[in-house]
Amino acid sequence: MIYNVAQLLKEGVGASRRRTASGDLRDIDELNPGDTHLEGELLFVRTPRGILVTGKAHVSVNQMCRRCLELTRVEIEFEIEEEFIPSIDIETGASLPITDEDEPELIIDEHHMLDMTEVLRQYVIVASMSPSLCRPDCKGLCPICGQNLNLASCQCRRDEIDPRLSILAQLLSSPEDE
Ligand SMILES: [Zn+2]
Ligand SMILES: [Zn+2]
Fold first, then answer.
1. How far is CA 36 from CA 19, 45, 79, in A?
2. How far is the CA of 61 from the centre of ligand 1 (A)?
3. Is 130 a residue whose pLDDT tops 80?
4. CA of 152 to the centre of ligand 1 (A)
5. Cα gap 44→73, rounded to integer Å
6. I need a surface site. Which of 62, 77, 80, 175 has the fewest CB within 10 A?
7. How far apart are CA 125 and CA 160, in angstroms?
8. What is the pLDDT of residue 97?
9. pLDDT reported for residue 166
10. If you measure from the C-alpha of residue 66 to the centroid of ligand 2, how many angstroms do you get, rounded to a whole number?
């Protein structure tokens, strides 16, 4: 997801382009190794200093359901807003000052190529940190025996156990007791 922005940099502040984003992000996290495909719609706007990119993207990732801990496929949609800054003056070819506060993934390279890939990858990492449910009515795990209650019920009498004691009950019930 690399875009040549030379022409846009030459235009005045406020000039814009619509661009689609379509490509693969590498190694999001341990549940999403390899390539994860992303699609999005972006708007590039020339600012006094660089190019503001806004838009929306969506991606399907593997997550662990926060209630039953089963692997589940989740569609994530998120909004993007980042300003990229050029490292070379488009008119003179002179190097532009880059400070320590300028994040390396937000720098437009010396060939006027703006690379969205790492920025989008970081957005997806952040977005996938808050786990979802495998389905809205996920029944979760039995706190006593650990049975996944979406797959089968168990014989535990959960309603009679104080939830504060359920951890203790879990510790006390060893496989030999069953
Ligand atoms: Zn679940
Ligand atoms: Zn149970």
1. 20, 27, 18
2. 15
3. yes
4. 13
5. 31
6. 175
7. 41
8. 85
9. 63
10. 18
Q: What's the CA-to-centroid distance between 73 and ligand 2, angstroms?
A: 26
Rg (the chain; Cα; Å): 24
Residue 61 burial (C-beta neighbours within 10 Å; 0-12, 13-18, 19+): buried
Q: In the chain, what are the helix, strand and coil shares in percent, each to the nearest 5?
A: 20, 40, 45
CB atoms within 5 A of ion ligand 1 belong to: 65, 67-68, 134, 138
- Per-residue exposure over 31-54, b if at least 16 CB sit within 10 Å of its own CB, e if not: ebeeebebebebebbbeeebbebe
Query: Could you read off the pLDDT of 161-173 as tens digits, one per residue?
Result: 566 666 666 666 6
Phi, then psi, of 20 in degrees rounded to 5: -95, 150
- Residue 154 CA to ligand 2 center (angstroms) comes to 5
Size of the chain, expressed as the number of residues it contains = 178
Nearest ligand (C-alpha, residue 71): 1
Check residue 176 and give its pLDDT. Answer: 52
Q: Rounded to 5 degrees, what are φ and ψ at 95?
A: -70, 140
If one counts every other C-beta atom within 10 angstroms of the C-beta of residue 84, the result is: 23
Give the pLDDT mean for 92-114: 91
Residue 39: both structure tokens together:
């699609």
